[in-house]
Automatic annotation (TrEMBL):
<dbReference type="InterPro" id="IPR008758">
    <property type="entry name" value="Peptidase_S28"/>
</dbReference>
<dbReference type="GO" id="GO:0006508">
    <property type="term" value="P:proteolysis"/>
</dbReference>
<dbReference type="GO" id="GO:0008239">
    <property type="term" value="F:dipeptidyl-peptidase activity"/>
</dbReference>
<keyword id="KW-0325">Glycoprotein</keyword>
<dbReference type="InterPro" id="IPR042269">
    <property type="entry name" value="Ser_carbopepase_S28_SKS"/>
</dbReference>
<comment type="similarity">
    <text>Belongs to the peptidase S28 family.</text>
</comment>
<keyword id="KW-0732">Signal</keyword>
<keyword id="KW-0645">Protease</keyword>
<dbReference type="Pfam" id="PF05577">
    <property type="entry name" value="Peptidase_S28"/>
</dbReference>
<dbReference type="InterPro" id="IPR029058">
    <property type="entry name" value="AB_hydrolase_fold"/>
</dbReference>
<protein>
    <submittedName>
        <fullName>Uncharacterized protein</fullName>
    </submittedName>
</protein>
<keyword id="KW-0378">Hydrolase</keyword>
<dbReference type="GO" id="GO:0070008">
    <property type="term" value="F:serine-type exopeptidase activity"/>
</dbReference>
<feature type="signal peptide">
    <location>
        <begin position="1"/>
        <end position="20"/>
    </location>
</feature>
Length: 480
């Protein structure tokens, strides 16, 4: 799933672990000592990278924490997201902490399967919890300014970081007063065909859904024909003549969805321009589809070699060196929760917006190839849901948002067909009409659509409430 979560990384920093480093633009890298395993199997220590923005901090103010999730940490995360606005509203300090095994936060010297064994949800959350404990009890050891002891903490984030935020609230309610979760997923499936259905829903809203689905059917008819001449002519039409059929299908899906995470603003919807605009009357559906893909490849400036290498389903690369966020995210999918992006089964009677060649086997074979016996694939999904998602029903103080056109909507709190999570005290689910992925957590902009502004306002009001009460966390099932 990582390739669909890739958000822009603003600036790379040159950093030396174990030191506090100042660079030109006044970004300061801080390091917090962690254990490889919080549960006693490996006591080695490592340094976790974090950044702080104390521009608005005043004594007694709260701590707002985020994580870049599956991206490397930059000052973007402490200065250019809604986190800094929350800090501004409450005289708070903004902190962003990199996740273990991403960016410069390396518990072990490589990303081999035996190292990644420590990439568990429990360990990842325990890292954040030990930072927060230190920040509350001994703030001068982690902050460059005098922060008041026992400050309240709100965890916030978008995409994967939204999951971290809700899990921090559900797992460590005494440490985290509330969570702002912009497009968290709260339900896992082995085969997540709801993902491509959300893309199709978006196309339907824009008016080109059925023609796009027709093109996908036409292409699959050729790809499954066993007629090599016909297949070669299709590859030629899409400008991807040297790829295998499998890689071709995967690249075509990626390219067609390449704007699916872009912001929808008052200036327009990038998916309308990148996809539907090509489906004009009189052009055969398959030709329109090819034009969508060719335009995406051009827009991204991808060479044939890059197209091959970006294909997660066919990683020939078995390097285990650090700084491969895709590999860590792949490991997480393999071992935590699956949610593999597969084609909607024909038997469902629903239209499909990616090729039927996108199957579960493809993903699982890659898990086996990379991580071998370390991976227990299929059995994980139910137990993961039970362990990490069921408790959310009784967790208070969470603000869940999802755009009505968010491609991750099918796994979110509010898929098109209704709510998955019950909300309870001081929690709220906001479906942001007409918005895409995680737009509410971005810094405000003059081109924001009204529903996004409204969602931020609702979130701001809830955060105020969470911080105002300073009450002990009470589980719903403990009440009465
Ligand atoms: C903190 O955030 C403010 C507001 O976005 C920004 O102007 C400032 O440069 C940031 N400082 C750091 C050190 O990132
Ligand atoms: C994976 O990519 C290689 C080229 O790098 C290709 O020869 C092979 O057929 C591909 N495998 C699949 C399953 O598509």
């Amino acid at each position: 799933m990582a390739r669909f979560l890739a958000l822009s990384i603003v600036a790379a920093l040159v950093i030396v672990p174990g030191h506090t480093t100042r660079t030109d633009n006044q970004d300061v890298a801080y390091w917090f000592t962690q254990r490889v395993d919080h549960f006693g199997r490996n006591d080695q220590q490592w340094e976790q990278h974090y950044m702080v923005n104390h521009t608005y901090y005043k004594a007694g103010g709260p701590i707002f924490i985020t994580t870049p999730g599956d991206n490397a940490l930059t000052s973007h995360h402490t200065s250019m997201t809604h986190l800094i606005r929350l800090a501004q509203q409450h005289n708070g300090i903004a902190v962003a902490i990199e996740q273990r095994f991403y960016g410069s936060s390396a518990p072990l010297p490589d990303l081999s399967a035996s190292s990644l064994e420590y990439m568990t949800a429990e360990n990842m959350l325990a890292d954040f919890a030990s930072f927060i404990r230190e920040a509350k009890t001994n703030p001068s050891s982690v902050f460059p300014v005098a922060v008041t002891e026992d400050a309240q903490v709100v965890f916030a984030g978008s995409s994967f970081a939204a999951n971290v935020a809700v899990w921090m609230r559900s797992t460590y309610p005494d440490l985290v007063a509330g969570a702002w979760a912009s497009s968290a997923f709260v339900y896992n499936r082995l085969e997540n065909y709801q993902f491509e259905q959300s893309f199709g829903y978006h196309l339907e809203q824009l008016g080109c859904g059925s023609r796009f689905a027709q093109a996908v059917r036409d292409l699959d008819y050729i790809l499954f024909s066993n007629d090599q001449v016909l297949i070669d002519s299709a590859l030629e039409l899409f400008g991807l003549p040297s790829l295998s059929v499998q890689v071709f299908a995967s690249v075509v899906s990626d390219m067609a969805m390449s704007e699916a995470l872009a912001q929808i603003t008052v200036n327009g919807d990038p998916v309308a321009e990148a996809v539907c605009a090509h489906f004009s009357k009189g052009t055969p559906a398959l030709v329109s589809y090819a034009n969508v893909v060719k335009a995406a490849i051009k827009r991204r400036g991808l060479s044939p070699a890059q197209l091959l290498s970006m294909d997660n389903y066919n990683r020939t690369d078995t390097r285990v060196s650090l700084n491969q966020p895709d590999l860590v995210s792949y490991f997480i999918s393999c071992t935590w929760f699956s949610n593999w992006i597969t084609a909607t089964p024909r038997s469902s009677g629903l239209d499909s917006y990616i090729s039927q060649l996108m199957t579960l086997d493809l993903s699982l074979s890659q898990c086996r190839r990379h991580f071998g016996h370390h991976v227990d694939f299929v059995g994980n999904v139910d137990s993961f849901n039970r362990k990490w998602f069921y408790p959310l029903h009784s967790t208070t103080n969470i603000f869940y948002t999802v755009g009505s056109l968010d491609i991750w909507r099918g796994s979110s709190v509010a898929p098109v067909s209704g709510h998955i999570i019950r909300t309870n005290s001081n929690s709220h689910i906001e479906v942001i009409e007409g918005a895409g992925h995680a737009q509410d957590f971005d810094m405000e902009s003059v081109s924001d659509i009204l529903s996004v502004k409204r969602a931020r306002h609702i979130g701001d009001t809830l955060v105020k409430k969470w911080l105002g009460h300073r009450n002990r966390y009470i589980r719903i099932d403990e009440v009465e």
